[in-house]
Amino acid sequence: MTRFADLLQPDRGQPASTLHLVDSAGFDTWLKGRPAEHRALLEAQRFDGKAAGTLALLPAGERVEAVLAVADPARLTPWCLAAAADRLPAGNWRLSGGRAGAAGLGWLLAQHRFDRYRSKPEEERGGRVLLTDQPAAIGAIVREAEATALVRELVNTPAADMGPGALEAAARSLADEAGAEFRVTAGDSLETDYPMIHAVGRAAAREHAPRLIELEWGDARNPRVAIVGKGVCFDTGGLDLKPASGMRLMKKDMGGAAHALALTRLVIGARLPLRLHLLIPAVENSVGGNAFRPGDVLISRAGKTVEVDNTDAEGRLVLADAITRAGEEAPALVIDLATLTGAARVALGPDLPATFVNDEELASQLLAAAGEQDDPLWRMPLWDGYDDMLKSDIADMANSGDSPFAGSVTAALFLRRFVPEATPWVHLDVFAWRPAAKPGRPKGGDAMGLRAMLAMLAKRCHPQTSSVA
User: Fold this and answer.
1) Cα 469 to Cα 462: distance, rounded to the nearest angstrom
2) Which member of 255, 382, 452, 462 lies 3.0 to 4.6 Å from 370 by CB, making a disulfide possible if both were Cys?
């Protein structure tokens, strides 16, 4: 993984080139203070500061300077510098206006590349360092970049190399690094104790056998928070087989697990005073003679029975058993993250995670954090009137209904039935994929809502401050 700590350094007076940030409102004033040579060059390039992301290079003796157009130099977003990060000449750079702040994240992530499968990987982009006058904030920004890159790399990795065993290895590595407790339930124990996780994954090849992965970290006296991530490493749809177009990106169906691992890493890195419980039901939803069938009735860990209306609605089944396990430890908060429904994407597109919350105070905290962190979320309703869509004629509930309406809502309502009563709960239905590149955000796997989640947790731990540095 890219060595992000080498790309963002504290300002100790090192020799550096200057990166000027301008916008359309202040460009003319800034331009008046520039040498005539610079004014002529910018005029020749038709650079006027209006189009955010445009960059111009200017001579400065033995060095070079650069000017970058941004929307507002006084309020840098995480992605303001991303357009410049991989276009500037190598070397040390210093912002003319001072610290990079939140924009340091985009500076780092614009230089990350997933090249595991390239026959000729790109060269390391060492020596491109943005100096900042806030050394205390660098650690938090680097951790956020590392967490985002972790999601990208896990999601981008093909299913042949990112099955349940690989997810287990990633979680075990994190546990070893943090000195956390770690356990895996598989085989006969999984079938007995987590029957819906086993049912979904039992048709997979032996090397991709289903399992429940658990990690626990932190002082047991601290508030307990459960983070559950959907780890469907590949989803054929099961016997309700997806078409080729629907199966093409299903390596990303473990995007919820990738987010859960990254959020766990962030919480541990920030040393938040929590007792953290990570749970990843890791399966491959395959086709075989022993695959679970439409019409089967499954008995969940909670004892509730579920009629399988559609084997392609498998994510909620594995999450239900994992959420039930989380609830047995009386958590103060349950968070689940999942690439759960296409309906969420139809409603909100690829950028906005559909966010379901059963507690108004928690919802306010989370949405406020999303705004503060420039990490957007969009709240969706847990509409009780749609509970009837999950009715079964022979079991306690069906895993989906025959209605084409409100698919993301009914999926959330299904999960809600397994959350302990009166326990605050957040469900994020994330896409975990960027279909088109933007500065600092290449096409492919991507993290969404991580920084908002971390800031919300930090605020709940430290009501007087939201700092996670």
Assistant:
1) 12
2) 452
Lowest mean pLDDT among 219-228, 240-249, 370-379, 456-465: 456-465
SS (H, E, C) the chain: CCCHHHCEEECCCCCCEEEEEECCCCHHHHHHCCCHHHHHHHHHCCCCCCCCCCEEEEEECCEEEEEEECCCCCCCCCCCCHHHHCCCCCEEEEECCCCCHHHHHHHHHCCCCCCCCCCCCCCCCCCEEEEECCHHHHHHHHHHHHHHHHHHHHHHCCCCCCCHHHHHHHHHHHHHHHCCEEEEEEHHHHHHHCHHHHHHHCCCCHHHCCEEEEEEECCCCCCEEEEEECEEEEECCCCCCCCHHHHCCHHHHHHHHHHHHHHHHHHHHHCCCCEEEEEEEEEEECCCCCCCCCCCEEECCCCCEEECCCCCCCHHHHHHHHHHHHHCCCCCEEEEEECCCHHHHHHHCCCCCEEEECCHHHHHHHHHHHHHCCCCCEECCCCHHHHHHHCCCCCCEECCCCCCCCHHHHHHHHHHCCCCCCCCEEEEECCCEECCCECCECCEECCCCHHHHHHHHHHHHCCCCCCCC
Tell me what pLDDT residue 2 has: 85
Q: What class does CATH assign to 144-461?
A: alpha beta
Place of tokens 């139809």: 346
pTM: 0.96
Residue with tokens 């938090």: 140
pLDDT tier at 449 (50, 70, 90 boundaries)? Answer: very high
Residue 249 has pLDDT above 50, yes or no: yes
Q: What is the pLDDT of residue 90?
A: 86
Instruction: Report, as an integer, the average pLDDT of 112-140.
Output: 82
Residue 465 is predicted with a pLDDT of 61
Can you tell me the distance from the alpha carbon of 43 to that of 45, in angstroms, rounded to the nearest whole number? Answer: 5
Instruction: State whether CATH 3.40.50.150 applies to domain 4-133.
Output: no
Q: Where in the chain is the domain with CATH 3.40.220.10?
A: 4-133
Residues forming the active site: 242, 316
Q: Tell me, what's the pLDDT at 127?
A: 61
